[in-house]
Amino acid sequence: MNAYEEAAADRDIQDAGKPKRIVLEVAGLSTAYRNRSVLREVTFAVPEGELVAIVGPNGAGKSTLIKSILGLTPTLGGEAKAFGETIDAARKRIGYVPQRESVDWDFPTHALDVVMMGRYGRLGWFRRPGRKERAVALECLRGVGMEAFAERQISELSGGQQQRVFLARALAQDADLYFMDEPFAGVDAATEKAIVELLRKLRADGKTVIVVHHDLATVPEYFDSVLLLNVTVQAFGPTAKAFTEENLHRTYGGRIGFAGAGAAAAASGRQDDPAPRQDAVHTFQGGGRL
Amino acid sequence: MMDFWILLTGSLAAVSCAVLGCFLILRRMALIGDAISHSVLPGIVIAYMFSGSRDSILMLIAAAFMGLLCVFLIQWFNQRGIQSDASIGVIFTSLFAIGVVLISLNARQVDLDLDCVLYGEIAYAAWNTLEIGGVGIGPRSVWLLGGALTLILAVIGLFYKQFKLCAFDPLLAAALGIPAALFHYLLMGLVSVTTVSSFESVGAILVVGLLVIPPSTAYLLTDRLGRMIAISAACGVLSTFLGFLLAVWLDASIAGCIVAAAAALFAAAFVLSPKHGLMAGRLRRRRRSLEGAA
């Protein structure tokens, strides 16, 4: 029994014997890029209704992990299953938010149209998006507070608004398991708040969300569980148990000073405004759920 | 009547190129279009050597195959550490060179004029009519290009949402289970077919102008993909008419004038576009500085 299962067992007792179903199982996943190992033997399992953060230094393979699970990049070995099925069989129940920078925001289209793209998987080969898809997309835009920007050309949106359009598109996928690649990267405070509220609402609806996250300071506040990744899994489990100074040390290696997690947060790439982060990091020892 | 057929031939080629070109430039693949248009040459020559005719379906198939081979090789080398622009340059010039060598080797047996392949001969294309039961039914090139355009519109129309998503966000497309590789090669195959059916009219060199310039013009004038395709097609047709008039007036190469006209339309859009144009940008800046002053 690893730390994760122990904690899950603890929670099961608290939840009056409602054992949680495992919705994602990843076993021995490995990938390489030009003879360099990017992921080695990554194994973990996520129970239903959890918000899970994937954190690690740059080049740790966080985005690659998501892409390998979803079959978007070739793997050397290992497998991933969602809801007990292969990923291909479960695609209609899986939502994905790629990194905002991965697309061209000068593309000639508007916000509502981007959100409708989330419905394409359900339309099959030949059906075109129609009035129903439009209504769903508008509802999803409303869910992220962007309904006023539906007809706006996407290049005219701010970074935070673009991120919200991406989240609305994921909502339009109407999935049970979501993968989000750095949704908090470079967004304004209002958008960050909107995303956190959205994550909590998804969890309240029984959805599971796996988020690549770069801001160590907010991990304990936002996430139930954390996967510390640096090519291999360094630690995985409930945030209270896995998000420790020792584990962060191991994950971030030489880049983290004796100052501990605060320095790790700085090493993770965001150098701005270190003071509140220190405070926030210290609270993680108290740990726990939102 | 001759003028009519020339204009129809040119317009059909221009519209085919303009529609496909939109997806190429949005995927940042304008140079792939150039590469395909050159690398179909060996396909054309080999098919010509086997069939002895330049009207065969074999030629279309061979050219489409070479176009796909070119795209495949570019990706293959790119994945093995060759820079993508170098990879494009190496592959398409190599294939084109093979085509040129094959033409010159077979110059005596093969009635395939290198100048015609490179620069096109739209007037000749319009002369070469097709007959059924002794009745002329118009130039072969019109039927060929009409067929290609119908194919393109049918495929793009049928799979519009897939092509759009693969162009905007290929990662999401793959995550949704849309076979992105299939649609990639489908698009490349269509570009190959268009190129080979247009080469008689505008030639292998200028066809890339029709693939890239009208979509780039349209891109400046709208911010919806559907409208971009329509405007691009309209620009293609307008370029054909303007280019033809210019060619008649100057007594110059028709294909050259068509592409020059397309370039002139692009320049006009670049200066005058209400959103992205130079004038609009200057006006915006002035208004902002005036507001700042006030």
Characteristic terms for this protein:
heterodimer; A: 290 residues; alpha/beta; six-stranded mixed β-sheet; four-stranded antiparallel β-sheet; 10 strands; disordered C terminus; B: 294 residues; mainly alpha; ABC transporter involved in vitamin B12 uptake, BtuC; two-stranded antiparallel ribbon; 13 helices; 3% strand
Uncertain spans of chain B, ≥5 residues at pLDDT below 50?
A: none
Number of strands of chain B: 2
State Rg of chain B.
Answer: 20 Å
Taken together, the total number of domains of chain B comes to: 1
Structural class based on helices, strands and sheet pairing of chain A? alpha/beta
**Beta-strand percentage of chain B?**
under 5%
**Spatial strand sequence of the major β-sheet of chain B:** 1-2
Order of helices and strands of chain A: HEEEHEEHEHHHHEHEHEEHHHH
Q: CATH top level of chain B?
A: Mainly Alpha
Shape of chain A: globular
Short structural summary:
The complex is a heterodimer of chains A (290) and B (294). The longest helix of chain A has 16 residues, at 189-204.
Provide an overview of this structure.
With 290 residues, chain A is an alpha/beta fold. Chain A contains 13 helices and 10 strands. Chain A has a 6-stranded mixed beta sheet with strand order 6-7-8-3-9-10, sandwiched between helices. In chain A, α12 (261-267) crosses α13. Chain A is globular, with a radius of gyration of 19 Å. Chain A starts with a helix and ends in a 7-residue tail after the last helix. A two-stranded antiparallel ribbon of chain B has the order 1-2. The mean pLDDT of chain B is 85. Chain B is built from 13 helices and 2 strands; from the N terminus they run ααααααββααααααα. The longest helix of chain B has 42 residues, at 180-221. Chain B has one domain: ABC transporter involved in vitamin B12 uptake, BtuC (Orthogonal Bundle), CATH 1.10.3470.10. Chain B has 294 residues and is mostly helical. The interface between A and B is medium-sized, with 31 and 28 residues.
